[in-house]
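Protein modeling request. Please complete all fields; requests missing the sequence field cannot be processed.
Requester role: graduate student
Desired output: 3D structure, C-alpha cell encoding
Chains: 1
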Amino acid sequence: MTMSRLDETPVEKRQVKEIALEAVLLIPNVVKLLARIIRDPRVSVRRKSFAVAALIYVISPIDLIPDFVGGFGQLDDLVIAAVALNHLIAGAGREVIEQHWDGSADALDLVLAATEWGTEIIPSPLRRLLPS
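Delivered output (132 residues):
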C-alpha cells in the first residue's frame, strides 16, 4: 500500500490492467460529452472548429511524428487530442460540462486532469501559439 499525499490515508496499489480498463470504460462517456458540447449553442464556433480540426488531424494518415516511430508515433495524436479537448472543455465551462457528463464526478475529474496534462507538456513557446 502507498500513502495518499492529500490526506495520508493508505491507498491500495492498483494493477495496470485495472487502470487501463477504467480508462477504456470512460471512452463512451467522453464521446457523448464531446457530441453534446459540439451541439451546445453556449460553446463558441471557434472552439468547436479547433476541436474538429484536431480530430481531422488525429484520424489523418499525415502526422508530425510518423506512427511507426516506436512509442512516439501516437504521442503527437494523443497530445493534440488532449489539447483540443482541453480547449473545448475550457470554452464550455464547468457548469456546461457537468450538465452533459453521464459518468461519476471522479471520472470527470480524471478526464479534465488528462486534458490539462496534454496542454502542460507542450513547451511554453508552442503553447503561446494555441488559441485562447
